[in-house]
Every structure is written in structure tokens, then in C-alpha cells.
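Exercise 7. Predict the structure of DUF421 domain-containing protein from Muricoccus nepalensis.
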Amino acid sequence: MTDIILRTAVAWLGLTVLLRLSGRRTLGEMSAVDLVVLLIAGDMIQQSLLGDDASLTSGFVVIITLLTLTMAYARAKASWPGAVRRLEGVPTVLLRDGRPDERQMANSRVALDEILEAARLQGITEPEEIRFALLEVSGQISIIPRAPPGRG
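Solution. The predicted structure, encoded as C-alpha cells:
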């Protein structure tokens, strides 16, 4: 059983790192292709976690190990917020005062059209009306509008 726990922990850590490297946008809005890749990866990982032992007990050991790792990670996030910022990242400014930051957009794999779509959901139709567009850690785009003339 300890080999199953160890393989599960290594797989959890490896997948967490790979997903982090793939970028926040990937997690924020999954396409059908992303879902298929995750399903196939899950099946491949499942086979390596259980090895030759596909018993119900081994399956529960894997699940309990994953839940324990997830709870430990949540506790670590509460205890060491600085370390979590390094692991999960911080919001990224994609657009400031109506001007796109092309480098940050390219690094985050976010197109101007995606920012403008998020803005339109708030009734903003022109980039100049946006004070900040932020790519949140969750992968969502937040729009902070400019103050109307005469305010702020």
C-alpha cells in the first residue's frame, strides 16, 4: 500500500506542476480539447497509480491520499500565503488605462478580443473605458472601469 500512496503523491505533485506551467487561462476556461486531454491523462495516471492492483481497496487508498494531499495543501495555503503566491501566482495586469500590455497578454495567452468580451459583459464597449483588465489566478478576467468624467 505504501507504494500506491507514494505513486499517488508523486502523480499529484507532477500534475499540479504541469497544470501550473500550462497557464492560468487553461484552467479558467477549459475547451473541449482541454477536457479530452485531462480525461486521457486521468486514465493514464490511474493505471500507473494502481499498477497491477486494481482492487477496490487500492482505489480507496488513492482517493484518500488525494484528499489528504488536497487538505494539506489548503492548510499550507492558510499558513504560508507568501509561498502560495509563488505556487499559484498573482493577478496579472493585461490592460492599463485602455492600453494592452502585449507582453503580459502573450505570456498569459489572452487575446484582446477575450478582454473586450469580458468588458462587454459589464457594458463597456471601448478599451479606453477600461482602467485595468486583470487576469485573476482563477483564470477569469476582471475589468475595472475608468471613473466617469467628474468622478474620481
